[in-house]
Amino acid sequence: MTELTVASLHISPAIFDPFPGLIAAESTRHGGVSPAPFSSLNLGINTDDSQSNVDENRRRFFTAIGAPAHAFASSYQVHGMKILYTVEAGRFEGYDALITDKPGLLIGVTVADCVPILIYDSKHRAVAAIHAGWRGTVGSIVTKTLDQMKQQFGTSAEHCYAYIGTCIDECSFEVGAEVAEQFESELKRVDAETGKGYIDLKRANANQLTGFGIPVEQIGVSPFSTVLNNSDFFSHRAEHGQTGRMLAVIGLAN
């Protein structure tokens, strides 16, 4: 099992290290003020945690990633396919992916088992933040987002760098037959003894990135699992719905 070496507030994806003008990070559950079951860096607004706790946790997170004064845009996610192009801060509703090319504006998604995907178009200096649960993955939200970036910015695969963030791992993501049948055979495994099905969401979304043409060496994948590393990350499944949320954010510095 992969373990965090430091109880940090966030992880900075190494795939984006060559771009000093880019801010990209995913939070952990460490370093916040929220009590159990949201302990401690709960960044999710739609939880039973107090708003003051979430506000302070977000202040700490954005300060830690060097963006305390940056604007921030996100959405109330609905496991749908809608993608928002935004140039202003705000909390929108009904979108599961956001794209922007505005410096000084961070965009982000909240997760607690679903897959966060961050994308940077280095030529056109545009970014995307995507929330992909199993429905979004089946619906190819990553591919749809890249297609919209191509239309909006002229994005091409060779200039894209992407990060697949911390989410539920294949060995923990047990699904019923009605879900398993919607995935290609290479993305699912059936336990020979129990007959239970398991889905690899990281691989499924990586396939969409490479399917668009992004080179494998320009894709980073988190080695962590929300379930196996539950002491470091929130997991909706492992904690039976009583837990906090992480943020995965990306944007261009001012």
How does this structure look, described?
- The chain is α/β, with parallel strands linked by helices.
- It has one domain (10-169, 201-252): CNF1/YfiH-like putative cysteine hydrolases.
- It has helices at residues 51-64, 134-138, 141-153, 177-180, 201-212, and strands at residues 10-11, 22-27, 71-76, 83-85, 90-93, 97-100, 105-111, 115-121, 126-132, 160-164, 174-175, 188-190, 197-199, 219-221, 246-252.
- The strands form 3 sheets. It has a 6-stranded mixed sheet with strand order 1-2-15-7-3-5, with no helix packed on it. A 6-stranded mixed sheet has the order 4-6-9-8-10-14. The protein has a 3-stranded antiparallel sheet with strand order 11-13-12.
- A hairpin with a 4-residue loop joins strand 8 and strand 9 (126-132).
- The longest helix is centred in the first third of the chain and has 14 residues, at 51-64.
- The termini are far apart.
Write the layout of secondary structure elements.
Elements: E1 10-11, E2 22-27, H1 51-64, E3 71-76, E4 83-85, E5 90-93, E6 97-100, E7 105-111, E8 115-121, E9 126-132, H2 134-138, H3 141-153, E10 160-164, E11 174-175, H4 177-180, E12 188-190, E13 197-199, H5 201-212, E14 219-221, E15 246-252
Parallel strand pairs: 3-5, 3-7, 4-6, 10-14
Antiparallel strand pairs: 1-2, 2-15, 6-9, 7-15, 8-9, 8-10, 11-13, 12-13
